[in-house]
Amino acid sequence: MSGLPLLEAAGLSLRFGPVPALEDVSIEVYPGEVVAIVGESGSGKTTLLRVLSGMMRPEAGVVRYRDPEGTVHGVQEMGEAALRRLHRTDWGFVHQNPRDGLRMRVSAGGNIGERLMAVGARHYGNIRAEAAEWLRRVEIEPGRIDGMPALFSGGMQQRLQIARTLVTRPRLVFMDEPTGGLDVSVQARLLDMIRALVADLGLAVLIVTHDIAAARLLAHRLLVMRRGRVVEQGLTDRVLDDPQHEYTQLLVASVLAA
Amino acid sequence: MSWAIHTEGLAKSFTLHLQGGTCIPVLEGVELGVAPGECVALAGPSGAGKSTLMRLLYGNYGVGAGRILIRHQDMEVDLATADARLVRAVRRETLGYVSQFLRVIPRVPTLDIVAEPMMVRGLPREEAKARAAALLARLNLPARLHGLPPATFSGGEQQRVNLARGFAPGYPVLLLDEPTASLDAANREVVVGLIDAAKSAGTAIIGIFHDTEVRDRVADRLFEVHPMPVAA
Q1: A181, A211 in Cβ contact below 8 A?
Q2: Is residue B180 in a domain?
Q3: Where would a tag sit more exposed on chain B, N or C end, judged by fewer CB atoms within 10 A?
Q4: Is residue B58 within 8 Å of residue B90, measured between CB atoms?
Q5: Which residue intervals define the domain ABC transporter in the entry (chain A) (predicted)?
Q6: Which residue of B has its CA nearest to A191?
Q7: In angstroms, how far is CA A62 from the centroid of its own chain?
């Protein structure tokens, strides 16, 4: 067990007008650990992801990030430039809509190469070779390297976004409903691909999903959110096989067995 | 006595919030100890809580009261209170579970399913795959199936994949839930051989065996699980 968390947050609270989006939420993510946040729409799970990744400020509470040298930073105290840099290097973010994570007017290879150049890669041949290798890893024909993402299917766009995110070898990746807008057959393939990549690269992942089956497949640990609160958390199969909270029992009982 | 795993005052009940908070007591005061190299068979009528006890031991059911002490890398860990990361470490190194049914992961080939637990314990990929292939062959699963995902396999074939995955790493403690339920006579013999070999290697085994012939051949003793009186 690697000892110290990559990310830890305590006492996070945030209200949108009278609506509590987060109420006293605490969470840690350790290296190599896949943590899923489940709950229905409006439970606060996407807000939590945005607060943890520094895209939104909480009214109360702290988020701390540990860099590769072991130094701890308060995410809210980081300047915008430092946060942007962090998002390009040690962190990655996979959006539900690939259009939010891709540059649609740049080729597939360019989308991957751009992230590499942002961390200092300069040799054109190496960048192109690495981009081709990542296309292969996410099961996109390397022949499509000069193709425009706008012409790709939704599933291919999502796989391209994942390649663009992982190419710089981040240690922590945030994923917001990564299979959200896709057909069921495409979802299974994408989930399986994410599962294999995460295991190969030893990534820590914080994934938000309303799909319980996806959470069971991917996550080591599960947090169940309702109305801005974490109502139950623990080992994924413990939470799903023996749910304690009334809401979790309802959530698990509502899943159709295939 | 130096146990590989033992329970103290283990109890479990389920509260069904969707059924008006009905509380169903299933187990109480379970004191079970298994030594290295010993095989204990859980006995008791259907519904007595044998499967519940197995799931408590593996940690996919939360413990109501009591302790589950397991020897994990020269430490004694209480699985009842261990956090999720520690339970994962115990499952990776110490505690294996062969459930009745294989939870199939889409698109992953059989060989990788069996090799994976060995790889996460640090065995090089090629060695893990070679051991996986050898064990699958011993369980009479032909090589032409090793590259296919087991989703389309028969029940018996899937069970053999599950058995290979559970036996391959050589966990110090192994839980077996009906390991021979859908197997033919020849494969039952293979499983008896695997259990005997694991016991000789010092593995502590807890099993549910409806097949009494297999049970009497592998089990050193029975542990009676008593049904709880039904509350009025």
Answers
A1: no
A2: yes
A3: C
A4: no
A5: 7-252
A6: B106
A7: 20
How many other C-beta atoms lie within 10 A of the C-beta of residue A142? Answer: 14
Q: Which two tokens stand for residue A78?
A: 């980081």
Chain B residues whose beta carbon lies within 8 Å of the beta carbon of residue A253 = 18
What tokens appear for B104 in the block? 């199939």
Contact A246 B17 (CB under 8 A): yes
Query: For B56-93, how does the pLDDT look when each residue is reduced to its tens digit (9 = 90+)?
Result: 999 999 999 999 999 999 999 999 999 999 999 999 99
For every residue of A141-160, which 3-state class applies, written as one string? Answer: CHHHCCCCHHHCCHHHHHHH
Name the B residues in 157-176 with CB < 8 Å from any A CB.
none
Residue among B105, B119, B125, B175 with most chain A CBs within 10 A, to mutate:
B105
Local structure of A186: helix, strand or coil: helix
CATH number for the domain harbouring residue B69? 3.40.50.300
Domain region containing B184: 5-224
Q: What is the CATH number of domain A1-90+171-258?
A: 3.40.50.300
From B70's Cα to the closest Cα of chain A, the distance in A is 17
pLDDT digits (tens, 9 = 90+) for A75-129: 999 999 999 999 989 999 999 999 999 999 999 999 999 999 988 889 999 999 9
Domain count for chain B: 1
| pLDDT given for residue B106 in this prediction | 77
- Which residue in the block uniquely carries the two structure tokens 């609160």? A229
In angstroms, the Cα distances linking A163 to A112, A114, B6, B218 are: 7, 12, 47, 50
* B46 Cβ neighbours under 8 A, 6+ residues apart: none
Q: Residue B231 domain-assigned?
A: no
Residue A253 in tokens:
């009982």
Q: How far apart are the first and last CA of chain B?
A: 40
Other beta carbons within 10 angstroms of residue A181's beta carbon come to 15
Residues written for chain B: 232
Alpha-carbon span A41 to B63, nearest angstrom: 31
Read off the pLDDT band of B232 (50, 70, 90): very low
Q: Do B60 and A238 touch (CB under 8 A)?
A: yes
ipTM of the shown complex: 0.91
Q: The tokens of A209 are what?
A: 């999903």
Closest to A130 (Cα-Cα) out of A178, A89, A166: A166
Please check the confidence at residue A182 and state whether its pLDDT lies above 90.
Answer: no
Within chain A, residue ranges assigned H as helices are 45-52, 80-88, 108-118, 124-137, 154-166, 184-201, 212-218, 236-241, 246-253
What is the tens place of the pLDDT at every residue in A161-170?
Answer: 999 999 999 9
Domain extent listing, chain A:
1-90+171-258, 102-169
Contact A249 B17 (CB under 8 A): yes
- Picking from A179, A238, A244 by the largest number of B CB atoms within 10 A of its own CB, the best residue to mutate is A238
